[in-house]
Each structure stands twice: as C-alpha cells, then as structure tokens.
Design a protein that fits this description.
Blueprint lengths: L2 H22 L3 H33 L7 E14 L2 E12 L5 E2 L1 H5 L10 H11 L4 H4 L7 H10 L7 H7 L7 E11 L7 E9 L2 E2 L6 E2 L3 E3 L6 H15 L7 E6 L3 H9 L3 E5 L1 H12 L3 H13 L2 H14 L3 H16 L1 H5 L11 H13 L8 H15 L4 H10 L6 H11 L7 H5 L11 H12 L3
Parallel strand pairs: 4-9, 9-10
Antiparallel strand pairs: 1-2, 2-3, 4-5, 5-8, 6-7
Length: 460
C-alpha cells in the first residue's frame, strides 16, 4: 500500500465532506455533529492504512520476519478501537522451525488472537467503568457490559507507577502521621454482603473546620490476599515516603474492628484512636436523644472517666422499657469498654478527628453499594482498586496503556521504511502531486475548483 497517497486521499475525503457541509448544511450545530462523524471515519481509515501498510512490509521484507513464511493472505479482521470498528486485511504466517502460526501484524500491534477490542479501547472502557455501570460504560463503543467486566477483571494495576513516584520524591519528616480505616458493605451476588476495606494515609488537615482537606492523602483498597497484605502495603508506602525514624506517633483511627486494630499492631509507633462517628452511633442507640445522658457520657469521655460513663449507662439500663433498648445499652457499654484505649487517645497531642465514613461513602459506596447491584468478590475488589487509583490522582486509562505497552513492539517501525521510500513524492512540486489526485477529475465542486486553482497557480 502506498501509505502517503492513501493518507492524501483520506485528507481529501475529509475536506470534501467538510466543504459539502459548509455549502449545503443547515447551520453550525449540524457542522459540529457532522465533524464528529467525519473525523471518526478519518481516524478509522488511518488505522486501517497503517495496519495494512505494516502487513505489506512484513510480506515484502523477509528481514522483518526471520523464520516466518507466508501461509495465507488478505484475511479480514474487525477490531473495536476508540474511534469505532476498523476492518483491515492481514497475512497469516508460519514459523519454519517451530511450526507456530500467527498474524504477525496483530502481534506487533498488541492485538491478541480472537480479540475484538484493542488496548486503547479497553483503556477507555476501564476509565468509563470507574464512574458508570458496565452496561453504560460500553454503550459508546457498542460493547456489552460483560465485555467491560472482563476488562476490569483483567487489569492488574501494575501500571500505576506508585513505586516509581516514591523513588523520585525525597522522604518527608513529620512529627505525626495519620492512618484512617473503614469498610464498605457491598451487596454480593451470593447473598452475604462483602466487606471492602478502605485505608488512607495523610499528614493532617488544612483549611476551615467545615471545609477542611487532608494533606497528601493516599488511599488503599483492592484485591489483597489477607488483611496483613493490606497493612504491609500501607507500611511500604509510609516507609518509602516518610522518615519513620523521626515520626513521633502514627495515629490509626477506625471503628475498633479487628482488621483495623491489626494495622495499629503492625505499623511502627502506632496508636489506635476510636472514630467518634461510630462511638456516637452506639451512644445514640443506647440513650436515644436524651440530651442530659448524652452530655454526661460525652463529658466522661472528655475527662477519660470510665466510671462516670458506666454510671450513666446503668441508669439508662434500669429505665429501659424494652428488651431492644436494654440490649442497646449493654452493647454500648461493651463497645466503650473494649475500645477504651482508643478513647483515652483523645487526650494525646496531635489527635484529629476521623473522616473515614465520609471517604468510604465518596470513594467506595458511590460506585459499589449505592446502586441495587450484586457484586462478585473479585469484581468489587477490582473496582475498589480503580476507585482509589482515581482518588490518588492516577490516570486509569494511562495506567492500563502503560501496563500493556511494555509487551508491545513498535509496529510503526515497519511503516518507516515504506514512508521513507514514498516520501520522495512529497519533494515534487505541488502541481505534479495534485495532477495524480483522482478528486480533480470528479464532479465539479468547491473542492475541485480549489485544487485546480492550486495546480495551475503554484509557482514552478
């Protein structure tokens, strides 16, 4: 294929169609709508030309395919790209020594056998799936929700580049670090709810009290073989980003669940802090909206006076009128007693409030549990990974392409030889180049008149 001439024809076709809209269109909005269609067609034509040119070079030059012989030619392939469906023709080769068969141009382009969607389109589907349902994510490219699901499941996340970023940044030295943790409860396809943990690290708060932001927040969630693996990942992040020898204390805040406390045991210099949001829920469940008892309990918490809190709850237990309320009071007391170390930590210097519940809602629940959908364990964990990547400021689409680009050979290298040979035509004067354009000999139009004017008026 003469790639340069082919591309010239593609450009001329775009120009022809744009001229047609300008001459016969009904307004600017129609121009915008048609441009989107025209440029999409142009992009698909360019991809087809590049793939077929690379295949022609493989057929022509044995040096580009050592050991491979042509088995069949002109086999059609349809692939979905970010611009839509592209149909091209390529050759089928066999290796003389190994007997292996392959469409070499597909292999060089990173298109796997029997694959319908190329890597760039998969990256776009993955990016769409972070915020939208699988079905909706595939609508623009006319891809099924199941196909989007497979893309999500196959993503390993190795292209996120977190370790490389840590190597480029010097370690920071701080007195206090903050680790907060909570989980989202996600509907399972098998009936029992899934618990998807979320952990994040930050350096404290900045801004006004009601509109504060976390400084240098970094989030963790996704497929982990165990809770220990999750916390080891958090430790690796802390160790690679901070001078832990100079950190005085790492505050680990959460609701007191075993997996949260496991982090407080594993991380160095860690102190567990009980999340006041969950503590408030237990207290409200025990004494309701009785402001006097609520105030007395919170006063005892502020002073670190466990006996005063116990006395208030005993009174509430004696006055409880139902079994449910009695059980709520007992549960509240057990919760306070088992997490008393986390309450005592409120008195320490550097302690701040915990916002884990809000972060779980914003990062996980908004995609995983706020809609009436059941998830598999792998699907929920993979989506959690994508959501925290986005929250960490990572480009999901670029991470996917980076992950797949490592195993790809530069297909465009095959086109360079063809372009070098064909580019000599570009050194010809414009009239000679234009004289070979079929559009000059078609029906008269604004385009043909403009091209003929260039042909005859261009200085020799």
């Amino acid at each position: 294929m003469d790639l340069i001439q082919y591309l010239q024809e593609c450009f001329l076709q775009v120009t022809r169609e744009v001229f047609d809209v300008l001459e016969n269109g009904r307004g600017y909005l129609e121009l915008e709508e048609r441009l989107q269609e025209i440029l999409g067609n142009f992009a698909r034509s360019v991809l087809k030309g590049v793939l077929e040119t690379a295949d022609a070079e493989l057929r022509r030059s044995q040096a580009e395919r050592p050991g491979w012989v042509i088995e069949r030619r002109d086999e059609a392939k349809l692939i979905i790209t970010p611009f839509g469906e592209v149909t091209y023709r390529r050759s089928y080769f066999q290796h003389k020594q190994t007997g292996e068969y392959a469409h070499l141009v597909d292999r060089l382009a990173g298109i796997e056998p029997h694959c319908r969607i190329d890597a760039a389109a998969k990256a776009q589907l993955l990016e769409n799936a972070v915020d939208h349902s699988y079905r909706k994510s595939g609508q623009k490219l006319d891809v099924s929700g199941q196909a989007v699901l497979e893309v999500v499941r196959q993503f390993s996340g190795q292209g996120a580049g977190v370790k490389e970023e840590a190597q480029r940044r010097p370690k920071r030295s701080l007195r206090f670090l903050y680790v907060e943790a909570d989980e989202d409860h996600v509907a399972s396809q098998r009936g029992r709810a899934l618990q998807i943990p979320l952990v994040y690290v930050h350096e404290g708060k900045t801004g006004p009290a009601k509109r504060y932001k976390l400084k240098e927040a970094h989030y963790f969630a996704g497929p982990y073989a165990s809770v220990e693996d999750l916390w080891l990942d958090v430790f690796d992040y802390l160790d690679s980003h901070y001078e832990l020898d100079r950190v005085e204390r790492v505050f680990v805040a959460g609701d007191g669940a075993k997996w949260v406390r496991a982090g407080a045991k594993l991380l160095p210099k860690a102190t567990f802090v009980l999340d006041k949001f969950h503590l408030k829920k237990w207290i409200t469940g025990a004494v309701g909206t009785e402001w006097r008892r609520q105030s007395a309990i919170w006063a005892g918490i502020q002073r670190g006076d466990r006996k005063a809190i116990e006395q208030v709850l005993k009174e509430a237990l004696q006055e409880a009128e139902t079994v449910t309320r009695r059980q709520a009071v007992l549960n509240c007391w057990r919760y306070i007693r088992s997490n008393w170390d986390g309450i005592e930590a409120y008195q320490l210097e550097g302690v701040t409030g915990c916002s884990a519940e809000g972060h779980v809602s914003h990062i996980l629940s908004a995609r995983l549990s706020s809609r009436p959908a059941g998830w598999s364990k792998l699907g929920a964990e993979q989506m959690a990974r994508l959501r925290v990547m986005q929250a960490n400021g990572k480009d999901v689409r670029r991470a996917y392409l980076r992950e797949h680009r490592e195993n790809m050979t530069d297909l465009l290298a095959l086109c360079r030889r063809a372009i070098t040979e064909q580019r000599q035509r570009l050194d010809l004067p414009w009239p000679e180049q234009l004289g070979n354009i079929p559009a000059l000999f078609g029906p008269k139009s604004q385009l043909t008149r403009a091209l003929k004017a260039l042909r005859y008026q261009y200085p020799a």
